[in-house]
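Journal club prep, shared notes

We agreed each person brings one worked example of a sequence with its structure written out as tokens. Mine is Helicase XPB/Ssl2 N-terminal domain-containing protein. I'm keeping it raw so we can talk through how to read the token line rather than staring at a rendered picture. Sequence first:
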Amino acid sequence: MSTHARPLAVWLAAASDSQLAALFEAHGVRTDSSWSDFFDAAEALLEPASIERMLPRLTLSEATALRRAVDSAAGGIGDPTDASTDGSSALIALALLRPDGIPSPPVVDAVMTRAVLPGVTAVAAAPASEIAEAHAAERAFTSVAALADLLMMARETPLALLTSGNLAAGEKRRLADAGLPVDIMDALIALAGDASLVTTTHRQLRTTSLGDTWLRLTASERWTRLAEAFRRALPRGLHTASGGWLPVPLWEHQHPWDPSWPERCAAIRDRARILGLIAEGDSEPAWAVPIREGHAPDVSALQRLLPAEVDRIFLQNDLSAIAPGPLAPALDVRLRAIAARESAAQASSYRFTAESVSHALASGETASSILDFLAQLSLTGIPQPLEYLVTQTAQRHGLVRVFAEAGSGRTRVSSADDTLLDAMGVDQSLRPLGLSRDAAGLTSRVGRDTVYWALTDARYPATIVGADGQPEVVDRNPAPAAAEASAASYEALIARLRAHQGPDADAAWLDRELEAAVRAKAVLLVEVGMPDGSTRELLLEASGLGGGRLRGRDRAADVERTLPVRSIRSARVFDPSLPPPTTASP
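Then the structure, token by token:
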């Protein structure tokens, strides 16, 4: 039993539930910890491994305050009891300083092995030049557009990830083939994760429902969401009291005891740079100032440097479409559900195919909804070849119907075209479905949705039919809800600790000291209160504890003694370097 754990145990018992939860979360305490009482908690929090885990998380101001307190305690320099300034109160809340501002021996030992902290001079962010601002705005525009393309691809087919969380090499090749800037994709994914636009499950990256909503926002609104999420996700050491962040030149010093901080800091700077929050030479564009100061974003300065969005396109006889500028995001998202985009630039081109129109029909569009949308969007009307493609594809769509048979639950495939049924029955790509032909069509033991998507991938005009006989729209990769940040719940742990909190902390601590001594068969220096009010010290080899009595051999008298615990004023492990007590035997 370590005596320095007792002040912390007393502080823990007096702390509020919210203070305890914050402390446990900061130390990474498991919610199912086996601690029985606050003494267990105090000893665990002061274990060297727990302290070593905590020190890298300290900010520069906290580390400086702790180092000052440790140096004062070790060398007697200054006043280590001043816990009101320089981050000391935060260190008390993190159990790295006692309530009196003095570090416990395990903390002193851990801090003394750390490097001396550097002196950091306060600097102000330098304003960016006009040219640097223009470059930053271009990067922001390119990055937001690239992230939108990434989310569109992940919405159609989840992207494979490595165990590190980065994109797999095959996915990067696919993105490169689509003309996306692969070198910033991992940083964009991190930004999207901060904004809950994507989620990762089973090493796959998927677009969330929030990501779907984000795709339909204007370019400036998209950027604002990302910038606000970036600010929220910054580490503690970079935040300011106003809710903003420190000037970028100060970032590299803010977690001095974290060996991984240089790499993390560089990654954060990269994200800020591709978002246009940092310009050349770590200078600051005008639109970054309000965000850094903790205010709501003001994108007016950024908008002036972004290309204007358009809401009209040119439809051409060769089944292509050209947008004379960046198409408004909501229109772009819907158009890309109908046509495949061929090139991405300030003037983008799209191409309509039977496959792209079929995809739109499978997603819930109809021939009339497609033509109405294109008529509103087009500056040149709807060319006859395009209208013909849409109507003919719509007529063919649904020629193959997939549904679950009411009685057996087997999947049935029917069609008015026997030739199609025969073709599906012998199609080698559909062999895993085990399609069996009967008079009414084809049947399979495979699930309805799996059969439907297999037929769709094989380019058969399939549609899913519900129990009511009406076509259903089925999303192959439905957008999951954005994962909410759920803080660890320590309610049960805190309740258990409080349930074992007795009214007499001194008595509880003495019981633990005696139990530990008996288990270790330690020699105790015991102070005993006598009936006449006097006290005596006994050197006792502890051998048992039970029934409110401590048993052990009195070394001075060489006899076995049994002492009532209530009569013991104090007990501590005897230090052999000190002379034994010379009191007479009682």
